[in-house]
Amino acid sequence: MAKKKDFNYYTGKKYDGIMGRCYRPTNRSYKNYGARNIAVTEKWVKDINSFRVWFLSELERLNVSIEDFLENTRNVQVDRIDVNGHYTE
Protein backbone atom coordinates (compact mmCIF):
# COMPACT_ATOMS: atom_id res chain seq x y z
CA MET A 1 0.00 0.00 0.00
CA ALA A 2 1.37 3.42 -0.95
CA LYS A 3 2.24 5.88 1.82
CA LYS A 4 -0.31 8.65 2.20
CA LYS A 5 1.21 11.96 1.24
CA ASP A 6 1.38 13.99 4.43
CA PHE A 7 2.64 17.54 5.00
CA ASN A 8 4.10 16.75 8.44
CA TYR A 9 5.91 13.67 7.13
CA TYR A 10 7.57 15.46 4.22
CA THR A 11 8.42 18.63 6.13
CA GLY A 12 9.91 16.34 8.77
CA LYS A 13 12.12 14.81 6.09
CA LYS A 14 13.25 18.30 5.00
CA TYR A 15 13.93 19.18 8.65
CA ASP A 16 15.87 15.95 9.26
CA GLY A 17 18.00 16.64 6.19
CA ILE A 18 18.90 20.11 7.42
CA MET A 19 19.63 18.88 10.94
CA GLY A 20 21.74 15.99 9.64
CA ARG A 21 23.87 18.22 7.43
CA CYS A 22 24.51 20.61 10.30
CA TYR A 23 24.78 18.39 13.38
CA ARG A 24 25.52 14.75 12.47
CA PRO A 25 29.19 14.11 11.62
CA THR A 26 28.17 10.79 10.01
CA ASN A 27 25.98 12.62 7.47
CA ARG A 28 27.65 12.61 4.04
CA SER A 29 27.11 16.39 3.68
CA TYR A 30 28.29 17.32 7.17
CA LYS A 31 31.71 18.36 5.84
CA ASN A 32 30.02 21.09 3.78
CA TYR A 33 27.74 22.33 6.57
CA GLY A 34 28.38 21.36 10.19
CA ALA A 35 32.14 21.15 9.75
CA ARG A 36 31.95 24.73 8.41
CA ASN A 37 29.95 25.78 11.49
CA ILE A 38 26.74 26.30 9.54
CA ALA A 39 23.92 26.05 12.04
CA VAL A 40 20.14 26.05 12.25
CA THR A 41 18.23 28.83 13.98
CA GLU A 42 17.70 27.87 17.61
CA LYS A 43 13.94 28.30 17.21
CA TRP A 44 13.84 25.42 14.70
CA VAL A 45 16.28 23.27 16.67
CA LYS A 46 14.04 23.49 19.72
CA ASP A 47 10.72 23.04 17.90
CA ILE A 48 10.11 21.28 14.59
CA ASN A 49 6.64 22.83 14.49
CA SER A 50 8.15 26.32 14.24
CA PHE A 51 9.99 25.04 11.15
CA ARG A 52 6.72 23.69 9.74
CA VAL A 53 4.95 27.02 10.33
CA TRP A 54 7.80 28.87 8.57
CA PHE A 55 7.81 26.32 5.73
CA LEU A 56 4.08 26.71 5.20
CA SER A 57 4.40 30.51 5.15
CA GLU A 58 7.14 30.21 2.51
CA LEU A 59 4.95 27.97 0.35
CA GLU A 60 2.17 30.57 0.62
CA ARG A 61 4.60 33.41 -0.18
CA LEU A 62 5.74 31.53 -3.27
CA ASN A 63 2.14 30.69 -4.20
CA VAL A 64 2.78 26.95 -3.97
CA SER A 65 -0.14 24.93 -2.66
CA ILE A 66 0.35 22.15 -0.14
CA GLU A 67 -0.97 19.75 -2.78
CA ASP A 68 1.66 20.91 -5.30
CA PHE A 69 4.37 20.54 -2.66
CA LEU A 70 3.20 17.02 -1.81
CA GLU A 71 3.21 16.05 -5.49
CA ASN A 72 6.76 17.39 -5.99
CA THR A 73 8.52 17.21 -2.62
CA ARG A 74 11.91 16.60 -4.21
CA ASN A 75 11.62 19.84 -6.20
CA VAL A 76 11.19 22.00 -3.09
CA GLN A 77 14.39 22.91 -1.29
CA VAL A 78 15.25 24.97 1.76
CA ASP A 79 18.11 27.21 0.69
CA ARG A 80 20.15 29.68 2.67
CA ILE A 81 20.41 33.21 1.29
CA ASP A 82 24.14 33.30 2.05
CA VAL A 83 26.00 30.08 1.17
CA ASN A 84 28.20 30.68 4.21
CA GLY A 85 25.27 31.60 6.44
CA HIS A 86 23.00 29.68 8.74
CA TYR A 87 19.52 28.23 8.22
CA THR A 88 17.20 30.97 9.48
CA GLU A 89 13.74 32.32 8.91
Brief overview:
This protein is mainly alpha-helical.
List the helices and strands and how they pair.
Layout: H1 7-23, H2 42-46, H3 48-61, H4 66-71
Total count of helical runs of at least 4 residues: 4
- Count of DSSP strands: 0
Indicate the structural class. mainly alpha
- Beta-strand residue fraction: under 5%
Rounded mean pLDDT score: 92
The 3D shape can be described as: globular
Largest sheet: number of strands, sense, barrel closure: none
What ranges have pLDDT less than 50 throughout 5 or more consecutive residues?
none
**Percent range of helical residues:** 40-55%
How many whole angstroms does the radius of gyration measure? 14 Å
Element order, helices and strands?
A: HHHH
Distance between the termini: 36 Å
Q: What can you see in these coordinates?
A:
The protein is mainly α. The protein contains 4 helices and no strands. The chain is globular and about 35 Å long. The model has no long low-confidence stretch (mean pLDDT 92).
Highlighted features:
89 residues; mainly alpha
